[in-house]
């Protein structure tokens, strides 16, 4: 499947192929997160609108609602397309007008857009730390819905979506899935478990509140829990927005290998956005060994206030652009030594 965006600020032009693992590198404020959020919004809206009365109208209205929740009510204009097969003709086209309304919505009445039934967007481990808070929000919101009241509390839509999934019940687990979880347990020295409906970190016989553990451990906890819940499957896409932010360079490499293994073993589709050379090169190394095909790398190039996406299969642009800060430091050091 190919996902294309035109004119959705700050993205002038971006097209990515979503076969297995897709990696988008680039500077801050170059549109990387926007790509992931738009893809999440399109797939999530189709899933929410399924089986609603007046489905054609509901899908259009639901997408506008989701876009407003994800981007704010100042959703920008743009053209969004999904293409399948040999990527010749779009099977889903959305046009957003200047005022943020859906000017055109031509997508199939199917919650499985491009064969993907759900998307998850993860950009922070804060969800774990606010888990009990989200439990309270969910409870109060349910009460308000039951009596037809308006629920006034606003909360991050993508984070609440993650909470709702993490809070699910664990089905039976297969042998291979246990193997990957054992690797996570070895890396972080324990695992996340649930006690009295609250997440805890178990290390040996000791249990610790999840909010008191390192954010790096919480980041690995997402992968562990998603595998436990059976959410690492071929009909889903996991969007990881700069997952390296809370990880030591060594753990970035471990994390990258786990991502590649989830794609290789379960057929999970993963979109990673990153501005870190450790993450980019680790994903490249492991995907060359274990995936070979169904892997696509891109670099988001800033051009003034806008950006465009270019292919970077061999990480040539990543290596050049992400090395510039080190060259700058070396230059400053040399200047200080000479002064």
UniProtKB/TrEMBL annotation:
Gene3D superfamilies: P-loop containing nucleotide triphosphate hydrolases (3.40.50.300). It holds the Pfam family AAA_21. InterPro entries: ATPase_AAA_core (IPR003959), Bact_Antivir_Def_Nuclease (IPR051396), P-loop_NTPase (IPR027417). This is AAA family ATPase. PANTHER family: ATP/GTP PHOSPHATASE, EXCINUCLEASE ATPASE SUBUNIT. It comes from the Bacteria. It comes from Pseudodesulfovibrio alkaliphilus. Residues 229-278 form the ATPase AAA-type core domain. One of its GO terms (molecular function) is ATP binding.
């Amino acid at each position: 499947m190919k996902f294309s965006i035109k004119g959705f600020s700050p993205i002038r032009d971006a097209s990515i192929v979503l076969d297995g693992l897709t990696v988008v590198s680039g500077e801050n404020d170059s549109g990387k997160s926007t790509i992931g959020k738009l893809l999440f919004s399109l797939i999530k809206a189709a899933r929410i609108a399924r089986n609603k009365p007046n489905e054609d109208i509901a899908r259009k209205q639901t997408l506008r609602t989701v876009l407003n929740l994800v981007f704010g009510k100042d959703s920008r204009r743009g053209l969004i397309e999904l293409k399948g097969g040999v990527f010749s003709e779009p099977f889903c086209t959305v046009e957003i007008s200047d005022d943020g309304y859906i000017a055109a919505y031509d997508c199939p009445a199917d919650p499985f857009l491009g064969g993907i039934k759900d998307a998850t967007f993860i950009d922070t481990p804060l969800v774990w730390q606010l888990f009990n808070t989200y439990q309270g929000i969910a409870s109060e919101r349910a009460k308000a819905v039951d009596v037809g009241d308006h629920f006034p509390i606003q909360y991050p839509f993508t984070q609440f979506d993650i909470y709702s999934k993490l809070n699910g019940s664990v089905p039976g687990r297969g042998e291979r899935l246990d193997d990957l979880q054992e690797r996570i347990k070895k890396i972080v020295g324990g695992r996340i478990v649930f006690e009295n409906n609250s997440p805890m970190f178990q290390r040996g016989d000791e249990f610790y509140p999840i909010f008191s553990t390192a954010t790096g451990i919480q980041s690995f906890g997402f992968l562990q829990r998603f595998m436990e819940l059976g959410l690492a499957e071929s009909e889903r896409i996991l969007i990881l927005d700069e997952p390296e932010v809370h990880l030591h360079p060594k753990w970035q490499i471990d994390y990258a290998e786990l991502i590649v293994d989830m794609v290789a073993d379960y057929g999970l589709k993963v979109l990673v956005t990153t501005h870190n050379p450790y993450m980019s090169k680790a994903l490249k190394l492991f995907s060359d060994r274990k995936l070979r095909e169904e892997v696509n790398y891109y670099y988001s190039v800033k051009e003034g206030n806008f950006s465009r996406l270019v292919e970077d299969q061999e990480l040539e642009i990543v290596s050049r652009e992400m090395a510039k800060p080190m060259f700058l430091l070396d230059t400053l050091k040399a200047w200080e030594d000479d002064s």
